[in-house]
Amino acid sequence: MMERINRENNASLIKKDQIYVNRAILVAWAIINVILAVAYLVEVIKGDRTPLYYGIFVTILWVPLAVSCILFKKKPDSRNLRYIMATAYFAMYAFVMTTGNTLLVFVYILPMSAMLVLYHQVKLILGYGIATIVLNIGMIVWWLFTNTVEDSGIKDLEIQMAVLILYFGCAYLTAKVYDKSYKANVSYIDVLSDKNDQINRMTFETIEAISSTIDAKDEYTKGHSNRVAEYSVIIAKEMGIGEDKLSDIRYIALLHDIGKIGVPDAILKKKGRLDDQEYEEMKRHTVAGESILSGVGTIPDLMIGAKYHHERFDGKGYPSGLSGENIPFIARIIAVADAFDAMTTDRVYRKRLPPDVVMAELEKGRGTQFDPKVVQAFINYLDSHKELLNGSGNDS
Predict the structure, then answer these.
(1) Higher-scoring residue by pLDDT: 392, 282
(2) How far apart, in whole angstroms, are the C-alpha atoms of residue 179 and residue 118?
(3) Whole-angstrom Cα distance, residue 186 to residue 183?
(4) What b/e sequence results for 151-176 when a residue is b if at least 16 CB atoms lie within 10 Å of its CB, and e otherwise?
(5) Residue 321 predicted with pLDDT over 80
(6) Distance of alpha carbon 362 from alpha carbon 343, whole angstroms
């Protein structure tokens, strides 16, 4: 499960990066469009452009951007947006290039091409550069053929082509270096995830071994910790807890009874009712569990299940007499899972309870022994998984 979660986390990081770049370029594109729209409006006012030209220009500016924004809203991580934005902007550039009356129009392509480097797609930058240079060469040939450019402007055309070639050459190299660095980082993250998976597996196996050791003290509670962990995860899922939290819940539940290591076997295996002194000894397993686990910092709040799983929602539990939501949430989940397993398995002092009695006891404990929301979530699950009511522990 942890391997899947880590893979999903890596995919999520890549998705967030794609969304961030798409949004950044759309915002920058909108700013560029505002600047161009205002600049050309000034030219219309001055009489250098006709209203018809301005209308066509504004349409070419804003319609593709509006379409791109709609597509971004529907699928913000879309990889196709890069091609749509590049093509749409190039169409605007081609329009002003072929209808412009100044050599400086060639600089219009630079803002978008600079932003496309963020995608670190070498082929995209290369294709964009080739298309731009071909268009400029075509326009230069046309200007020379129609004598649009005087002899004194030939030098400017040479500078224009040199700037474009140098610019796209640098953009190409930048994108290539950036892409290599990006892929190296992704690869490094994958390696770290694999190592993290190994650590998580070792942690889980160690915790399982410890919990099995605890359960082995009493043949009647064999497998108890594992079952409580499974039930706790079921309840957490039913309550909408995210996958990234479930592994911690499983670990905490697996070790909820670790304090019983210090409880004498005579008390654990006693067939009759515990006397007051024995009961007080048994109750100490909660604070003992807290003491054992409090120094473990790998898993957050690992000790809260051990210390608080016998607290009651009405405040009559132990060791601290906490009530309601003052009891840690995970401990409230474990309390229901622990009680359910106790009722559905044979114990040294009684046989497992019938399914209808188990359900009645869960209902009875709502708001007194158990958090109403937690126990309701488990009851909802049990309604469609009644096989659990027959017990999955020891048989006799």
Answers:
(1) 282
(2) 9
(3) 5
(4) eeeeeebeebeeebeebbeebbeebb
(5) yes
(6) 10
Residue 15 to residue 20: CA distance in whole angstroms: 9
C-alpha torsion sign, points 297, 298, 300, 303: negative
**pLDDT per residue over 343-362, tens digit each?**
988 776 678 888 999 999 99
CA-based nearest residue to 330, from 210, 231, 258, 396: 231
CA distance linking residue 352 with residue 346, whole number of Å:
5
**What is the SS3 string spanning 205-250?**
HHHHHHHHHHHCCCHHHCCHHHHHHHHHHHHHHHCCCCHHHHHHHH
Q: Is the pLDDT of residue 378 over 70?
A: yes
The pLDDT-based confidence of 152 (bands split at 50, 70, 90) is: low
Closest by CA to 174, choosing from 108, 109, 107, 118, is 118
Higher pLDDT residue, 217 or 377?
377
What mean pLDDT is reported for the chain?
Answer: 85
Q: Which distant-in-sequence residues (6+ apart) come within 8 Å of 193 by Cβ?
A: 6, 7, 9, 10
